[in-house]
Amino acid sequence: MEEGARLVLRTSASLRAGERVLVVADASTRGIGEAFLSAARGLGADPVLAVIDPRKGDGEEPPEPLGAAMQATDLVVLVASTSLTHTHARRAANRAGARVISIPGITSSMLEEGGLATDWAEIHEAVRRVARRVRGSKEVRLTSAAGTDLMFQVAGRDWITEDTGLCARKGAFTTLPAGEVFVAPVEGTAEGRLVADVYFDEPLSAPATAVVSEGHAARITGATRAIHAMNRGGRDGRAFARFGFGLNPRARVAGPHLEAEKALGTAHVGFGDNLVLGGKIHCGVKVEAILSDVGIVVDGKALVEKGRLVP
User: Fold this and answer.
1) What is the enclosing helix (H) or strand (E) of 36?
2) What is the per-residue pLDDT across 78-106, written as a single tens digit (0 to 9) for each?
3) What residue spans of 97-162 are helical by DSSP H?
4) Which residues partner with 152 through β-bridges?
5) pLDDT of residue 244
6) Sheet holding 294-298, edge to edge
7) Alpha-carbon distance 310 to 221, whole Å?
8) Which residues face 264 on adjacent strands?
9) Which residues of 283-307 are buried (b: 16+ CB within 10 A; e: fewer)?
């Protein structure tokens, strides 16, 4: 694990000798926290490991003294078993100038062989190359080996290309694993068939299918939990609202869904809210699906084919 931790600290955080590092873990992730502690020490930093009681759920604030400590350091690495990404403590640390890397759902295997065991400078370059190819695009066709064939419009929508994993500037923030570009499709334009074979609001043991008409999932089979979640948002809960695809060659499709959606060769789609991506839907519902072995054609030119980037 220590080598993976060293890659994160060296290539994502650009850690410098003498910097103050605070690693935040809990009882179930203490071993991972110790790997980061040792790696930071080996890179010449001045690290501290804080082991907190497990939070009750994602977004629950850490103990108040820890929040103050986060503001008084150069780099914070969050590896607790619940996510501290959307907390006041994390935001305050960033405002105070600390760099913060949050790794929700981290496992030892992600550091040893998965989506964290990568050079983040290389991921940054891959995202930037793809960003140039999709900028100003108008139409996307998504296919997959499992049977997806979906068309939708993206004209006038800005692709989000900040998920590079770099966290080198003062006050910077990133979540890892990283390596995805995404966009809010034009509402009402998606038509075709979507077959999710990895995840559809929950891990899948068999593919689930959604027929998409006039930008909405009109008929869904094999994903009962997703159907119930969408229905809570009314008609907008079924709106095809988000599209992204992974560029991380070390991320594993079989890993946790936060890792799988970054894997090269996967597509990550969403139904419901998309305001944060520049869309127009706000219904209080977000339902995600992940597809493997995808093909992506942008404005008639192949971008991803058989799960690989087309040069």
Assistant:
1) helix 30-42
2) 999 999 999 999 999 999 999 999 999 89
3) 108-112, 120-134
4) 140
5) 97
6) 216-221, 208-213, 191-196, 149-153, 139-144, 294-298, 301-305, 308-309
7) 32
8) 246
9) bebbbbbbbbbbbbbbeeeebbeeb
Query: Are the beta carbons of 118 and 4 closer than 8 angstroms?
Result: no
Task: Please say whether the dihedral angle defined by the alpha carbons of residues 198, 202, 204 and 208, taken in this order, is positive or negative.
Answer: negative
10-residue mean pLDDT profile of the chain (311 residues): values are 95 97 97 98 98 95 96 97 96 98 94 92 94 97 97 97 95 96 97 98 96 95 95 96 96 92 96 94 95 97 92 88
Alpha-carbon distance 39 to 161, whole Å? 29
Tokens of 215: 């930008």
Q: Where are the beta strands (DSSP E) in the chain?
A: 20-26, 46-52, 75-78, 99-102, 139-144, 149-153, 160-163, 173-175, 180-183, 191-196, 199-200, 208-213, 216-221, 240-246, 267-272, 286-291, 294-298, 301-305, 308-309
Identify the structural domains of the chain with CATH numbers, from first to last.
2-112 (3.40.50.2300), 120-165+172-309 (no CATH)
Collapsed DSSP state (helix, strand, coil) of residue 114: coil
Q: Hey, how many other C-beta atoms are within 10 angstroms of the C-beta on 256? A: 20
pLDDT, tens digit, for every residue of 13-25? 999 999 999 999 9
Joined together, the tokens standing for residue 10 give 């060296």
Place of tokens 């030892």: 108
